[in-house]
């Protein structure tokens, strides 16, 4: 059964050299991180009432972590993450994705095996596609069995870029 989507209390942009990401925070932490796209439309909604001090701390940690990730450097202290929007199955997949070491890839089948459901390969792909925080819950590290890239919610160019920044050789 799917949980209710956490209600974002604040939506705050994060400018980076790669474009402006959009971070959304619930009362529990970062609940969504969106890749740059359609920014003219998002800028209008991005400015909300002044965030509470805790949200500002989370945003500072999110911004720093995002910049480190985009620079290909390891994270030391990721921001608090709220994954409560997912089903129980999705949450198991997302927690498993967080265990894939930086600079490594797993197949969808390996993830299915790791969650104890080896026949759930397609469902793992669906959970990866539904991942609300794809940079910090690294679904970009999951590839097809034939070492092809598979899909990615941020687009294959972003998947390639994130993997290359981690030192993974990927096909063009």
Decide which structural class fits the backbone.
alpha+beta
N→C terminal distance: 38 Å
Percentage of residues in helical conformation: 25-40%
The low-pLDDT segments are 38-47
Number of strands: 5
Mean pLDDT: 88
Essential attributes:
single chain; 172 residues; alpha+beta; Arc Repressor Mutant, subunit A; two-stranded parallel ribbon; 6 helices; 37% helix; globular
SSE topology:
Blueprint: E1 10-16, E2 19-25, E3 30-34, H1 39-46, H2 53-70, H3 88-97, E4 106-107, H4 108-114, H5 121-130, E5 142-143, H6 156-165
Parallel strand pairs: 4-5
Antiparallel strand pairs: 1-2, 2-3
Helix pairs in contact: 3-5, 4-5
What does this structure look like?
37% of the residues lie in helices and 13% in strands. The protein has 172 residues and is α+β, with helices and mostly antiparallel strands. It folds into 2 domains: 10-70; 88-165, Winged helix-like DNA-binding domain superfamily/Winged helix DNA-binding domain (Arc Repressor Mutant, subunit A). α3 packs across α5 (121-130) and α4 crosses α5 (121-130). The longest helix has 18 residues, at 53-70. 34% of the residues are buried.
Summarize the structure in short.
This protein is an alpha+beta fold.
């Amino acid at each position: 059964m799917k949980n209710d989507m956490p209600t974002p209390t604040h939506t705050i942009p994060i400018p980076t050299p790669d474009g402006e990401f959009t971070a959304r925070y619930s009362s529990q932490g970062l609940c969504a991180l969106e890749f740059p796209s359609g920014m003219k439309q998002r800028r209008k909604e991005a400015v909300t009432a002044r965030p509470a001090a805790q949200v500002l701390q989370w945003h500072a940690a999110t911004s720093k972590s995002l910049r480190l990730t985009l620079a290909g450097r390891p994270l030391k202290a990721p921001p608090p993450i709220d994954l409560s929007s997912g089903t129980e199955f999705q949450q198991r997949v997302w927690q498993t994705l967080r265990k894939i070491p930086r600079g490594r890839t797993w197949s969808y089948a390996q993830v299915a095996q790791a969650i104890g459901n080896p026949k759930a390969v397609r469902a793992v792909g669906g959970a990866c596609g539904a991942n609300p925080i794809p940079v910090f819950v690294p679904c970009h590290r999951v590839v097809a069995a034939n070492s092809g890239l598979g899909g990615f919610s941020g687009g294959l160019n972003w998947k390639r870029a994130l993997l290359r920044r981690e030192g993974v050789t990927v096909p063009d």
